[in-house]
Amino acid sequence: MTTATRRRGRWIEDWEPENEEFWANGGRKIANRNLWFSIFAEHLGFSIWTLWSVMVLFMGPQYGLSAADKFLLVSTPTLVGGLIRIPYTFAPARFGGRNWTVFSAGLLLVPTILAAVVMHPGTSLGTFMLVAALGGVGGGNFASSMANINAFFPERSKGWALGLNAGGGNLGVAAIQLIGLLVISTAGANAPRIVLYIYIPLLIVAGVCALLFMDNLTSMSGDSKAMREVIKDRQSWVMSFLYIGTFGSFIGYSFAFGLVLQNQFGRTPLQAASLTFLGPLVGSFIRPVGGWLADRIGGAKVTLWTFLALAIGTAVTILASNVKSLPLFVAGFISLFVFSGLGNGSTYKMIPAIFRAKAQSAIEAGAEEKGALLQARRLSGALIGLAGAIGALGGLFINLAFRESFLTAKTGIPAFVAFLVFYGVCFVVTWAVYLRKPAEVRAGEAALASV
């Protein structure tokens, strides 16, 4: 009977998720336990990362910040969160997934406590941006969590597991926006610290739970060359580009939704808050569905139609903006969350599938099976970090595009037109690289046509 071998410090040796006997004899139970506590910690990471999309709703005229200032403020943690994802990707391999989850959850206390200190009228924009930048570390939690969970699950279950992990994390965006709504509607727009006081004890609980219930995998260590290898692979850059269109859309719109409603449709903070949580909520819940569909019909097919749907949803927001229809605009904008959520799940399923296909080719050419599959898991973990970092920067571009659009045209329409064109490009790239007939695919990449 094949089972996991443990050593001191909650480290697990000989992790073989592709071995069905190993998986049935305790592997699945261990992986699922780590998944649930990973989701909890990552959920809070997303909440702190997107904290300032809620804080700006509390910033009335007394704060002295313009709409452009607020778009710049919410762009700051997006940038930091994207850049920090690359080192966070390697942290589970270097320090252990359980160990890093404990540390990263505790680290989130710093920007949360500082936000409570500076959140009052009279604080300079530069100070707000500095504290918001520190909150960007919450964006890194996604990369470390996904790399860690990717190593725990077999290929046949990765789409669902990664989708569930990411979807549960993404729910942190909706959760903090919903809490912001409850605070504004009950205590008023002058009580932002209540939001922060709710999250401080939750972060402590997440760290303690990770300490007590998660595990480290020795098979993730010693992989310093992984990022250098994936950077040289053309598929890495294609997937990173596509992830700008899916996750970049989700996180960028999450930060911008409330500000767009206030500046384009004149909504009050309470009116904006009553709508902003809906998009991230549905986008998060549907992300595992994108992974589930990708497991069954192929990630590339789901991703292709996702970009077409995103283009249609964007066209609806442009129409609604021109006719000044708030209900149509909200419907179109929320559809962007729905389809970006589906695309998030399907694109992340494609990453391990690509390296799995390459591993199978290596095995057929005579490579040792266990080593080839382990290498596939390592490389897919590295690409998850790279694509996650670059995709998150898409959120920065979205908010900067809105900032420029409102500065020059006093409306978000020019930004939406740019997004529409971009989704069209993503649609073409997905089809050209992954869905053409095998005979038309570049030599050596035919196996990727079924990704």
Supply the key terms.
451 residues, mainly alpha, Growth Hormone, Chain: A, three-stranded mixed beta sheet, 2% strand, globular
Overall description:
The protein is an all-alpha fold and 451 residues long. It has one domain: Growth Hormone, Chain: A (Up-down Bundle). It is 80% helix and 2% strand. It contains 17 helices and three strands. Helix 1 (20-49) packs antiparallel against helix 9, helix 13 runs antiparallel to helix 14 (299-323) and helix 16 packs antiparallel against helix 17.
The coarse overall form would be globular
End-to-end Cα distance, whole Å, is 33 Å
From N to C, what is the helix and strand string? EEHHHHHHHHHEHHHHHHHH
CATH domain topology: Growth Hormone, Chain: A
Structural class: mainly alpha
Nearest-integer average pLDDT = 89
